[in-house]
C-alpha cells in the first residue's frame, strides 16, 4: 500500500467509522498482561472477554509512538506454545506514521468463528516510559469477506487481566480512523495469499 493510498484510506476510514458506531459488540473487552522481557523490551499478551468474535471481526489496539517502538507480532510464533491458539487469526502490527500523526497499532482479525475463546495474542515492543506500560484504546470492527469495513462494533480501553472492563468512552472513537487502513491491508493480504493465516511481517 503506497503512502498516498494510506492517506486516502485513513481519511475515508475516519468519515466512514464516525458514522457507523454501533452500541452493541461481540466481545465486551480486551485484557492485557504486561511482561518485562529484558531492559526496555516488554511483551503484551491480550485476551478477549465476553462473547467470542465471529469470522471477519477484528480487534485493534493503539500504541503511543512517543513511548513505544519496534512492535513485533508474535501471535503465531511457533516457539511460543501459548500463541498457537491464535493461528486461525490474521494478525500484524502497523508502525506509527509521523506524517499522519497516527499511533502504532496491533490488529487481529478472526478468520473463522471464535468458539473457544482460548486465544492468547502476543507482541513485543520497546517502552521508553517510566514504570511499566499500561492500558490502551481499542476498537472492535466488522469486515466483510473481501476485507471491506462494514461497521464499528465497539470502542473502549484495555484493562489488566482480572480487572472489569470500563464503559466505552467518547475519546476512544479516535482510533476508528485506523479502520480504513486495515480494510486495505486485509484485502491486499487476501488477494496475495488466497487464504491468509500465519507469518505476517511488520509493515514499514
Q: What does it look like?
A:
With 204 residues, this protein is of the alpha+beta class. It has a single domain (3-193), classed as Immunoglobulin-like. It is built from two helices and ten strands; from the N terminus they run H-E-E-E-E-E-E-E-E-E-E-H. The strands form two sheets. The protein has a five-stranded mixed sheet, with no helix packed on it. It has a five-stranded antiparallel sheet with strand order 5-6-3-8-9. It is globular and about 40 Å long. 39% of the residues are buried.
CATH top level label: Mainly Beta
Number of strands: 10
* Structural class designation: alpha+beta
Outline, from the CA principal axes? globular
> At CATH's second level, what is the architecture?
Sandwich
Sheet with most strands: 5 strands, mixed
**Approximately how much helix is present in the residues?**
10-25%
Amino acid at each position: 500500500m503506497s503512502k498516498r493510498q494510506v492517506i486516502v484510506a485513513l481519511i475515508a476510514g475516519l468519515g466512514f467509522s464516525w458514522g457507523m458506531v454501533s452500541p452493541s459488540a461481540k466481545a465486551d473487552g480486551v485484557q492485557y498482561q504486561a511482561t518485562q522481557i529484558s531492559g526496555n523490551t516488554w511483551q503484551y499478551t491480550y485476551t478477549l472477554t465476553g462473547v467470542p468474535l465471529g469470522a471477519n471481526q477484528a480487534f485493534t489496539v493503539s500504541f503511543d509512538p512517543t513511548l513505544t517502538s519496534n512492535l513485533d507480532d508474535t501471535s503465531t510464533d511457533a516457539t511460543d506454545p501459548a500463541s498457537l491458539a491464535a493461528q486461525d487469526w490474521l494478525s500484524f502490527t502497523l508502525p506509527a506514521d509521523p506524517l499522519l500523526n497516527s499511533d502504532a497499532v496491533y490488529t487481529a482479525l478472526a478468520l473463522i468463528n471464535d468458539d473457544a475463546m482460548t486465544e492468547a495474542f502476543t507482541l513485543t515492543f520497546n517502552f521508553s516510559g517510566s514504570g511499566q506500560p499500561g492500558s490502551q484504546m481499542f476498537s472492535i470492527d466488522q469486515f466483510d469477506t473481501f476485507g471491506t469495513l462494514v461497521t464499528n462494533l465497539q470502542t473502549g480501553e484495555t484493562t489488566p487481566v482480572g480487572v472489569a472492563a470500563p464503559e466505552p468512552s467518547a475519546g476512544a472513537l479516535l482510533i476508528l480512523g485506523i479502520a480504513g487502513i486495515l480494510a486495505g491491508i486485509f484485502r491486499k493480504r487476501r488477494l496475495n495469499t488466497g487464504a491468509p493465516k500465519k507469518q505476517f511481517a511488520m509493515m514499514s
